[in-house]
Design goal:
Blueprint lengths: L2 H9 L16 H9 L8 H4 L7 E2 L13 E6 L2 E5 L5 E5 L12 E3 L5 H8 L13 H8 L6 E6 L1 H9 L1 H10 L1 H19 L10 E5 L3 E2 L2 E2 L3 H21 L4 E5 L7 H8 L3 E3 L9 H7 L4 E6 L8 H9 L2 H7 L2 E5 L9 H16 L8
Parallel strand pairs: 1-6, 6-7, 7-10, 10-11, 11-12, 12-13
Antiparallel strand pairs: 2-3, 3-4, 4-5, 8-9
Helix pairs in contact: 6-7, 7-8, 8-9, 9-10, 12-14
Length: 365
């Protein structure tokens, strides 16, 4: 089997020769530390760790056009006050110590009320140029693909959070529900109109709704509110995608989605990623509760900084069982921390590869 066949069959709970060997992208600060520990600089991690490519991206832009011009407004010691490309005013360090691991601090956002939302709408015109000039040729080439194709869509909670801010959005569900409804309806209409006439140029295997609407121990929105505000738009977006041949639709949600998972299933989603263990998720329990809901990730990133025994226990305590039940693609449950020793990660990759390939595994001393 090739990479595409393995991934799509795994996500469909079908038999495979083995599940794909993929990983979360390695961030700058982690790679910096690994290079200092002997990783050959400039070497592609796919080759070095014997990984498979995750997916090939579909080049349709459903985001803001034009983006705001980034601008530094003030500087105070190590900090800067600046406007980012989404129009938010932020306070951040001028120099980033650990690229890829940044704690952001927001001051204000581009959308505060209906008037500012109407201004924001001007940056979401489906008629704008939202594909490369060679899109048709790329689509023809992708018909011969051996790697799955993927379209990521910043969707309802994610996009509104970028417009108004997380805390502001959570308050707005109560203080101005009509505006929330209006924004979600507009965004769904915009994405569908943007995809019309474009999505059929490409073979799309997987669509991922980017949401990130949960934190440690709980979601940021209740299942009741999801059903009231988001469910209708999920259903019509998923119906549109199905009508254009998309077979696998996933929700990207860090944290602990909890009660949202039945709502995802009711809306028509096929699975979720990345099943973050630090937030309180339990892979084996989730598989028991949702036996036909596909999952990605679920390997606790925190154990990578410990020792081989901890890594062994994490992998062997659940990965073989999950592989047997199907519908599961194992990888680290978010960005690999920069305090992860390269030797530990290499041991994890060797161990996971042996498990996936059905090879003998020896316990560490």
């Amino acid at each position: 089997m090739n990479s595409r066949e393995r991934l799509l069959r795994t996500l469909s709970f079908q038999s495979v020769d083995r599940v794909p060997l993929i990983e979360w992208p390695i961030r700058g600060a982690t790679m910096r530390e690994w290079i200092a520990q002997g990783y050959p600089e400039g070497t592609d991690p796919l080759h070095f760790f014997a990984l498979e490519p995750y997916c090939i991206g579909i080049p349709i832009d459903t985001g803001m056009l034009p983006k705001f011009t980034e601008e530094t407004l003030e500087e105070h010691g190590p900090y800067k006050i600046w406007r980012d490309e989404l129009g938010a005013i932020r306070k951040d360090f001028i120099n980033t110590e650990n690229p890829g691991f940044v704690t952001r601090s927001w001051i204000s956002f581009a959308v505060t009320d209906r008037a500012s939302f109407l201004e924001m709408k001007k940056r979401y015109n489906p008629a704008d140029i939202r594909m490369p000039a060679n899109a048709e040729a790329r689509g023809r080439v992708l018909q011969q693909r051996a790697v799955a194709t993927h379209l990521g869509i910043p969707f309802l909670f994610w996009q509104l959070r970028d417009w108004v801010g997380c805390e502001n959005l959570c308050m707005m569900f109560y203080d101005d529900p009509d505006l929330v409804h209006e924004m979600m309806e507009f965004l769904t209409d915009f994405i569908i109109e943007t995809l019309k006439g474009r999505i059929d140029l490409f073979p799309v295997d997987i669509v991922e709704f980017k949401e990130d609407m949960a934190y440690k121990g709980a979601p940021m929105i209740s299942a009741k509110m999801f059903r009231e505000f988001m469910m209708p738009h999920y259903k019509r977006m998923i119906a549109f995608l199905r009508s254009h041949g998309v077979q696998h639709i996933f929700v990207d949600c860090d944290g602990y989605p909890g009660e949202l998972i039945p709502a995802f299933i009711e809306a028509g989603a096929d699975g979720m990623s990345p099943v973050e263990i630090a937030a309180g998720n339990d892979l084996l329990k989730l598989r028991e509760e949702y036996p036909r809901f596909a999952m990605w990730g679920g390997v606790d990133k925190r154990v990578l900084a410990m020792d081989k025994r901890a890594i062994y226990d994490e992998v062997m305590g659940k990965i073989p069982q999950m592989l047997e039940k199907g519908g599961y693609v194992p990888h680290i449950d978010h960005a690999i921390p920069h305090n992860t020793p390269l030797a530990n990660y290499m041991y994890y990759r060797e161990l996971l590869t042996r498990v996936v390939c059905g090879e003998p595994v020896v316990q560490p001393y």
